[in-house]
Structures are given as C-alpha cells and as structure tokens.
Design brief:
Layout: E1 34-38, E2 44-47, E3 60-64, E4 66-68, E5 72-76, E6 82-90, H1 96-100, E7 105-113, E8 122-127, E9 130-138, E10 141-146, H2 153-160, H3 177-180, E11 188-191, H4 203-211, E12 215-222, E13 243-247, H5 249-257, E14 263-266, H6 268-285, E15 294-297, H7 301-304, H8 313-326, E16 332-336, E17 351-355, H9 362-370, H10 375-384, E18 395-399
Parallel strand pairs: 1-18, 3-12, 3-14, 4-11, 14-17, 15-16
Antiparallel strand pairs: 1-2, 5-6, 6-7, 7-10, 8-9, 9-10, 12-13, 13-16, 17-18
C-alpha cells in the first residue's frame, strides 16, 4: 500500500439517512424515477426520462449485464425451526454459468441463518411436485439435490428461490421483485445483488438512445453480498470484497472502436470493472505482471500502480485487445478487489449514472473519487428535494473530476 497516500476518515462518509427515505419498492414503471443532474454545481431535479437529452449523442454507454439469481432458500425443520440458506458462490470455485446448468446436484458456499438449529441431517423444501434437499458439507457449504433430475439448478432456483433483496429493504421479497430487481439487459447469471443504476432503464429508452446515436457496451461483474457491507473502523484497514469480471473480445473491440467517444458508465459495478481492466493493462505496461487474459486486481492497486505513471485509455485498451487476440479472441476473466478512493484519478469514465448509496459504504467512496462535485452537497440537495434512496430509489448523474 502506498505510504504517501492520505486515507480519508470513515466519518467523512457519514450522513443522516432517515428510514422513510429508503425506497422499499421501485416506481410503478421503469423510467418513472427522478434523476439528480449533478454534472455541475448547479444541481437540477429532473426525470430519469430526461437522460437522453443530458448526454452527448455519440456517447458509449457501458453497463453491467449480470443477472441476479434467486439466492435465498427458506427451509423449515420438522421441529418448526426456520433455516435460511443464502447462496454465495459455487464450489469448488466453479463458473456460475456451468453450475446453473447442473442436473441432479450442486454444491455452494453459503450463509446460513439460524445455523445453530441445523447442525446435521437433511432439510427438505417441497414446491409443486419438486423436492429440494439440502445437506451441510461444512460450516459454510451445502450440497443441494433435487427430485427432478431433468431440471437444471437454474430452473430449481426459479421455482424454490427468493429474490435476495438488500438488507435495508425491510420486507419479504414478492413475486413482483423477480422482474423488477433485474435490469432489462440482464443476461449472465452470477450476482446476488442487482447493479441497481440499470434498474431505471426500459426497452423503449434503450431503443430511443440507440436511435439518437448512443452506442452500448456490455461487461459483467458478479455482484457479491459484500457490496452491502459498510466500512467499520479505519478505511485503510477495510478488507474489500472480491468479485468476478467477464468481458468478451467483441466488447473489447467495441470499446476500442469508440475510444474517442464520451464514456458513460451505468453503475458503480461497471466503473469498478472498467478501472480494473485499465489497471490490468497498466500493470502489464509497468512489467509488474506478464501478459495474460486472466485479471487479478488487489484492493490497493488503484494507489500503487497508478503512482508509477499512467497511460492513455486508448493505449490501455489497445494492449488489452492485442492480448485477447493473442489468446484466440478470448476476452478477459478474473477477480477484482479494487477499492477506489479519492486521491488517484479515475481514468476510464467521463460520466457516471448511479443510485444514492448507504452511509459509510465503499460505493459512496467510489462516487467521491469520481465526481466533479461535492457528494455531500449533492446528497443534501437530494434529501431536501424528496429523492428516494438506495437500490429501489432514484438516480443521479455525475461528471468526472
């Protein structure tokens, strides 16, 4: 970690968020939310549908196409004890896409609520002729099997699982959430939390923006439950969660072809992905790692590697594209624990569309690192003007500093 870097205090990211300002439900229709235009110091309360008029016509809009899995499974023992099993990732470190196609059985790393009431034995869940059986294989691992071997695990979860709403939405998930806690461009299964800035878009707006000349690019970051974990204690001591990145060769080509356009990132997960890609190229440039299509970004790489000197976005993505070509047009896959803090430049984005984030969260620190305006003033404006906060809340648009 850079010794010269001055870490912020966690108190710098605290603010009073009344419970009634946390959106428990989304707007009736996608796109009906408010939008805080915070691209200048003169904040404006607008409608989300105004977004196409606020960005340049030749913008490249990059979004996270990850899909949320129904990760909560509710079992009840014969004693009446209720056990919740929350899926985190497949074991042994398998790819989500592979695991979701499995038939007959699947093993996962999990969180278990009320684990003391389930030390051994099998749990069973019956839904419409389907029997799902859970067996503990370790302190934080469970093997699932089911009665219909012709069904994939994805199909089983669609029947038996519940939407993993964030912990600050204090209600049970409803059938309604299966569709609304998912973006219209969700494709690649692998997340247990939605990239919520994308929840505002509907198909009509996507088509309108495309007709106006906006181009789209897709990445995937498998959003983990760690995204909701607030920072406690010193910022420098926080252990940043790890998430998996996927980007295809075709999308790298798409980005490189539009390298001179303004880049708008939909959500903090997209920004984290793109900065991780840039850092991978920068590490190769500085000969800190060999050329590889496998990404591994540690949480303080943002501070350490950029201190050695930057390269242009064009040079970085030219390098990434060449590596992908050398590896049979493979694209990139890997893990990032990147912790983005104010004090080092965010290179890849010109604009960021995001929701309002929790106090003391790493996502709020990312916004502060990016935005050209004071986040506290923007959030104060939003609170005074009846914006709705967090995952099902309203959106804001920031420009890079």
């Amino acid at each position: 970690m850079s010794q010269e870097f001055s870490f912020p205090s966690i108190s710098d990211y605290d603010y009073d968020l009344p419970a009634e300002r946390i959106a428990a439900y989304p707007t009736e229709r996608r796109g009906d939310s408010l939008l805080l235009n915070a691209t200048t110091q003169h904040f404006q309360k607008q409608n989300f549908n105004d977004l196409p008029n606020l960005i340049p016509a030749n913008t490249l809009m990059v979004f996270n196409e990850t899909r949320v899995i129904p990760a909560r499974l509710h079992f009840q023992k014969s004693t009446g004890a209720k056990i919740e099993v929350f899926l985190l990732k497949p074991l042994p470190d398998n790819d989500f896409q592979v695991e979701m196609t499995r038939k007959e059985s699947s093993e996962w790393e999990v969180l278990i609520r009320n684990a003391a009431k389930w030390k051994s034995g099998l749990l069973q869940l019956r839904i419409d002729g389907l029997m799902l059986v859970a067996e503990r294989t370790g302190q934080n691992s469970v093997l699932f099997s089911w009665s219909k071997p012709e069904m994939s695990f994805a199909a089983v979860l669609a029947e038996a699982g519940k939407v993993p709403l964030p912990p600050y939405i204090r209600r049970e998930s409803e059938k309604y959430d299966l569709e609304r806690y998912q973006t219209v461009f969700a494709k690649r299964e692998g997340s247990v939390a939605a990239p919520t800035a994308g929840l505002h878009f509907n198909d009509e707006m996507m088509a309108l923006m495309q007709n106006q000349g906006v181009k789209f690019a897709r990445v995937s970051l498998d959003v983990g439950i760690g995204t909701f974990r607030p920072v406690k204690g010193e910022v420098k001591d926080h252990d940043m969660h790890k998430e998996t990145i996927h980007i295809t060769h075709e999308e790298l080509e798409n980005m490189y072809q539009n390298i001179e356009c303004p880049w708008l990132f939909v959500g903090t997960t997209t920004l984290r992905t793109m900065e991780s890609l840039y850092l991978h190229a920068l590490k190769i440039h500085h000969k800190l790692i060999d050329e590889s299509n496998h990404i591994f970004i540690e949480q303080w790489d943002h501070l350490q590697v950029k201190a050695k000197g930057l390269i242009s976005k064009k040079e970085a993505f030219e390098k990434l594209l060449a590596i992908s070509i050398k590896n049979s047009n493979s694209g990139f896959i890997g893990d990032t624990s990147l912790f983005i803090l104010k004090g080092q430049p965010v290179v890849t984005a010109d604009l960021l569309l995001t929701n309002f984030h929790q106090p003391s969260s790493t996502l709020l620190m990312l916004v502060d690192a990016f935005a050209s305006v004071d986040w506290k003033k923007a959030y104060d404006f939003a609170l005074k003007n009846n914006f709705r906060f967090l995952s099902y809340g309203d959106a804001c648009l920031f420009k890079s500093n």
